[in-house]
Amino acid sequence: MDSESLKIFCAVAAELSITQAALALGRVPSNVTTRIQQLESDVGVELFVRTGKRMALSSAGERFLDYARRLLALEEEARHVVTGGVSGGALRIGSMESTAASRLLPVLADYHTKHPNTRVDIITGPTRHLIEQVRTGTIDCAFVAVPLARKESLAESGIQQQLVWPEELVLLLPTSDAGARNAAEIRTRNLAAFALGCTYRHLAEEWLSIAESTDWKINVVGSYHAMVACVAAGSCVTLLPESVLKLTSAPPALRTLHVGHADTYLIWRQGFNVPAFQNLLARLSEER
User: Fold this and answer.
1) Mind listing the pLDDT tens digit for each residue in 208-251?
2) CA distances from 203 to 49, 177, 250, 262 (A)
3) What is the three-class DSSP state of 137?
4) How far is the CA of 248 from the CAs of 25, 89, 124, 241, 259, in angstroms?
5) What does UniProt give as the signal peptide span (predicted)?
6) Neighbour-count burial of 159, counting CB atoms closer than 10 A to its CB (0-12 exposed, 13-18 middle, 19+ buried)
7) Domain with CATH 1.10.10.10 in the chain
8) pTM score, whole prediction
């Protein structure tokens, strides 16, 4: 098993096609097939299930893929550290959708201007999933809204955190609830929110006392623009950062209730101090 075999495996896993992976890698298909067969022989299990011309990751292949990505990332991290950052390196950043939409654009644009040789990969997801990906090394760092109850447990699990942005949270109301002054006066009983694991969804459920009611329903929506559209249609309420609301084209007739605030933190594994990450910390220090 070597890094080149792992790269080929990851490419085939992404494409689920020898031909497409070979094209992406600049190799002939027969060479890719041979390397995959050698890797399977080395690890002692089939990494792919082949049915005619179709292929899919086996259960062992799905588990191996996570390790392959982490091994390749660790190799790149080691190379980046020993060269003192000369190679540019790579940085895998996770982010909540809200932070990606309202905060990251100027930060990452400036970062790229100062460090053009560093490859930055961005993924988005809910806080709970991002924390787990940082913990397992799938990503290097993440922008999350850390619930108060989890801050101590994060430190105990080897994750460091740094406050970056405070966020004011508002509940956006449909016009039928424009006169509501608190949660008890809201007549609309549908909440538009992201899937489980989103801190803002958790805060909305708490503020609206959804767990104590039998008539509330939660509509899982994939974007803030879709959430605002649901509110504009009169079918839902939704909770979102004020900074995100300002980016949408929400009708002026929609009113909001102030819910509170939730700080956005950057989290990373203790001991992770590659030059590319230190450069990000230096850029974020300008935000405070």
Assistant:
1) 999 998 899 999 999 999 999 999 999 999 999 999 999 998 99
2) 43, 20, 22, 9
3) coil
4) 40, 35, 19, 11, 19
5) none
6) buried
7) 3-79
8) 0.76
